[in-house]
Design a protein that fits this description.
By secondary structure, the protein is α+β, with helices and mostly antiparallel strands. It contains twelve helices and eleven strands. It has two domains: 6-122, Phosphorylase Kinase, domain 1 (2-Layer Sandwich); 126-352, Transferase(Phosphotransferase), domain 1 (Orthogonal Bundle). The protein has helices spanning 6-9, 32-35, 68-91, 128-134, 140-159, 210-213, 222-243, 247-254, 272-289, 296-306, 317-320, 330-351, and strands at 19-20, 24-29, 40-47, 50-57, 100-107, 115-122, 126-127, 162-163, 172-175, 178-181, 188-189. The mean pLDDT is 92.
Length: 353
């Protein structure tokens, strides 16, 4: 079989130099590793003297196990959902979340597949993984400020009926001093029909909570199930920011082999005590890895309540023991603000020695 270069088959791989929608001038194609995107072709574009980020639908990612027409239809449905959900959030004035600034669909001749569907976003400085790798000014106080931004963005999404489901380092973008949640493509919205509405978890399995791995359905309440998943993902992010690891990544190290999700087929309730034992070991490892300048006990308690293995008991202790929803993030926003201020003071105090 002749191996034809992608940029001769798919117009989406050959956009540099083209102008889309009569305004978006495509200047540079970005690598997958530089964008975190696995199902899109990403570019830098210019308009009005400002640079933006463009994401074009990648039809080459369609599985060979499905018919091409069916695969293209599925991809277009996903594209339309992300576009519509982003516009929904824009109309609801959701902040701390990356929203599209433009979109379109165009056809180019001289390609086997000349259709290009694209979304345009405000261009970030980088995602949080790269920022934490290269920034010489990154400190623990900045981490708490960024995490507070994320918690605010997540609460804003919840307030308009959206569960993000895919909160992870590559989906946190840094804009100068502000962090925003990006990539609504895997999100669920109670007010929009989407491709993932019937899924138990639509995000990256690398960051999934305990109940997903054990196929444990604990509630029929849409808000509880999905927002508590987001709570776990926020706790994972806190652990990642401050230690470089996550609760999900450490799960396998402390579970007996016979209770590993790949092998265990019994009930979730039967192994709750085992999961709690493993979780305590995870918390001890994370605590020992926390920077000395932070209040380790407060951070540990925050991760513990957000990532608690038993989802019915997950959430801020004061919320769990009251009538307010377990998933309400306002107490965590307040806590992160306190930790930011306290850490700034500790760092300043150290400069005086």
């Amino acid at each position: 079989m002749i191996d034809i270069p992608k940029n001769q088959v798919y117009a989406a791989y050959d956009l540099v130099g083209k102008t889309l929608g009569g305004k978006w001038k495509v200047t540079k194609q970005l690598t997958k590793s530089g964008t975190g995107g696995n199902f899109s072709v990403c570019y830098l574009v210019e308009y009005g003297g400002k640079e933006y980020f463009l994401k074009a639908l990648d039809f080459s990612s369609i599985s060979h196990s499905v018919r091409l027409v069916d695969g293209m239809s599925e991809k277009l449905n996903e594209f339309r959902y992300e576009r519509d959900l982003s516009n929904y959030c824009k109309d609801k004035q959701v902040n701390k979340v990356v929203i599209i600034v433009g979109f379109g669909e165009e056809d180019f001749p001289n390609y086997i597949i000349g259709s290009v569907a694209y979304l345009v976003f405000e261009k970030a400085d980088c995602d949080v993984r790269k920022f934490m790798d290269i920034s010489q000014t990154t400190d623990v106080a900045w981490c708490f400020k960024s995490l507070k931004d994320i918690a605010i963005g997540l609460r804003n999404l919840h307030n308009v009926g959206v569960s993000h489901q895919d909160l992870k380092p590559s989906n946190i973008l840094v804009f100068n001093e502000e962090s925003k949640i990006s990539d609504l493509g895997r999100s669920m919205c109670e007010n929009l029909k989407g491709p993932y509405n019937d899924w138990k978890f639509s995000g990256d399995q690398t960051y999934a909570p305990w109940e997903v791995f054990y196929r444990y359905t604990w509630t029929d309440d849409w808000h509880l199930q999905n927002y508590m998943t987001d709570c776990f993902l926020l706790g994972n992010l806190i652990a990642f920011y401050l230690t470089g690891s996550t609760v999900t990544a450490l799960m396998g190290y402390f579970l007996p082999c016979n209770l590993h999700p790949a092998y265990y087929r019994g009930s979730f309730k039967a192994i709750e005590s085992n999961l709690l034992d493993a979780f305590q070991n995870i918390l001890d490892v994370l605590e020992s890895s926390l920077p000395s300048v932070v209040d380790k006990q407060r951070v540990k308690r925050m991760i513990e309540s957000l990532c608690y293995p038993i989802p019915e008991k997950r959430g801020h202790p004061k919320a769990v023991n009251s009538r307010e929803p377990n998933y309400d993030l306002q107490r965590y926003i307040t806590e992160l603000n306190y930790l930011q201020t306290k850490t700034e003071f500790e760092l300043y105090r150290l400069t005086l020695k």
